[in-house]
């Protein structure tokens, strides 16, 4: 009991309940038990470690996860992802308890757009409509007109009248890619994702020489030079779907490595090679996503902490542009 009190008192500092977990426990069975007992649902992003993906009720990218969060009738949403994702679930389902295994699972891209700076930037362009990528804080969402994900961004931009100037935030790489794709000039916020920015063009080119039949498939958060050599560009879900439909046998995957687990499961006879970053590593993990572990997931379900809480005024303001996104996505059948 004393151990639990200490862990709770240190929760904000550490980000998670730092309690020992009995190594003999079957965590998969325990998590299933807790789901039933508490009417809880586990939503996991594709970039989570394989064990977490295997125990999740739903695995997806940001669009799918927010759609699931909006429609679930569970009492507790356990979000195995990063903070802005759990925050989005809370914005959409305020009456539900939303848990995140580690509160410190943040996002370098979301951090690259501090709301106060963005507000000043927006004030300089009062005639612009703001489209923000979902990878941003609730503060940025509240300053936006429409949210988008990499799955629906093109359609969202196309839904805006051609003569309406647009600010796109926070990812400059995704914004640049979309500007090219849609032919729309957009004012871009200068943010980026540390995982997708660090891929090495040189190492990928060498890999391609060693695997001449491999197709390069890349996420649009990557830099333009990487996208230029890609055979296919798409959101995490689009990359997974492409790997199922396409007839190549080998792929060089230029995004976070967590997605390789589903790709391999869905296509056991194909080979997926993680693209190397510009450092000594052979693959590229998101350090924020990988803060969540199966043990932390179990502990947060058992003790229902850490929980996402939010100022109500901010929540209501942030909800509007997300709902707009969900409406437009539904119109396009996304
Ligand atoms: S992969 Fe990039 S955008 Fe996604 S959570 Fe990690 S830092 Fe953020």
Structure report:
With 334 residues, the protein is of the alpha/beta class. Helices cover 45% and strands 14% of the residues. It contains 17 helices and twelve strands. Helix 5 (62-71) runs parallel beside helix 6 (83-92), helix 6 (83-92) packs across helix 17 (312-331) and helix 14 (236-245) packs parallel to helix 15 (259-266). The chain starts with a helix and ends with a helix. Bound molecules: iron/sulfur cluster (SF4). Iron/sulfur cluster binds at residues 82, 107-109, 135, 193-195, 256, 286, 288-289.
Task: For this entry, give a set of tags.
single chain; 334 residues; alpha/beta; Rossmann fold; four-stranded parallel sheet; 17 helices; 12 strands; 45% helix; binds iron/sulfur cluster
Structure classification: alpha/beta
**Which superfamily, in CATH terms, is the homologous superfamily of the largest domain?**
NadA-like
Distance between the termini: 48 Å
Based on CA atoms alone, the radius of gyration comes out at: 20 Å
How many beta-strand segments? 12
Characterize the largest beta sheet: strand count, sense, and whether it forms a barrel.
4 strands, parallel
Give the names of the bound compounds: iron/sulfur cluster
Give, in spatial order, the strands making up the sheet with the most strands. 2-1-3-4
Mean pLDDT: 96
User: Could you spell the SSE succession in H and E letters?
Assistant: HHHEHEHEHEHHEHEHEHEHEHEHEHEHH
Report the sheet-strand fraction: 5-15%
């Amino acid at each position: 009991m004393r151990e639990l009190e200490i862990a709770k008192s240190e929760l904000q500092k550490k980000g998670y309940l730092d309690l020992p977990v009995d190594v003999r426990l079957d965590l998969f069975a325990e998590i299933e038990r807790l789901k039933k007992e508490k009417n809880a649902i586990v939503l996991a992003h594709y970039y989570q470690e394989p064990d977490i993906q295997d125990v999740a009720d739903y695995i997806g990218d940001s669009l799918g996860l927010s759609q699931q969060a909006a429609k679930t009738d569970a009492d507790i949403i356990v979000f195995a992802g990063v903070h802005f994702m759990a925050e989005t679930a809370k914005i959409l389902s305020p009456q539900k308890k939303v848990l995140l295994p580690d509160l410190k699972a943040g996002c370098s891209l979301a951090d690259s757009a501090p709301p106060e700076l963005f507000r000043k930037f927006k004030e300089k362009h009062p005639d612009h409509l703001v489209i923000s990528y979902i990878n941003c804080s609730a503060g940025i969402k509240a300053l936006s007109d429409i949210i988008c994900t990499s799955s629906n961004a093109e359609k969202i931009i196309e839904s805006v009248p051609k003569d309406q100037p647009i600010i796109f935030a926070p990812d400059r790489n995704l914004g640049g890619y979309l500007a090219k794709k849609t032919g729309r000039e957009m004012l871009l916020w200068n943010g980026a994702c540390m995982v997708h920015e660090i891929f090495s063009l040189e190492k990928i080119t060498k890999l391609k020489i060693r695997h001449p039949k491999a197709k390069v498939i890349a996420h649009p958060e990557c830099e333009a030079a990487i996208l230029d050599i890609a055979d296919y560009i798409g959101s995490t879900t689009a990359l997974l779907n492409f790997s199922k439909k396409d007839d190549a046998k080998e792929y060089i995957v230029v995004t976070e490595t967590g997605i390789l687990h589903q790709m391999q499961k869905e296509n056991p006879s194909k080979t997926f090679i993680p693209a190397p970053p510009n450092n000594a590593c052979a693959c590229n993990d998101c350090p924020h996503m990988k803060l969540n572990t199966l043990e932390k997931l179990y502990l947060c379900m058992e003790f229902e902490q850490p929980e996402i809480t939010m100022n109500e005024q901010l929540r209501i303001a942030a909800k509007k542009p997300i709902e707009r996104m969900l409406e437009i996505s539904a119109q396009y059948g996304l």
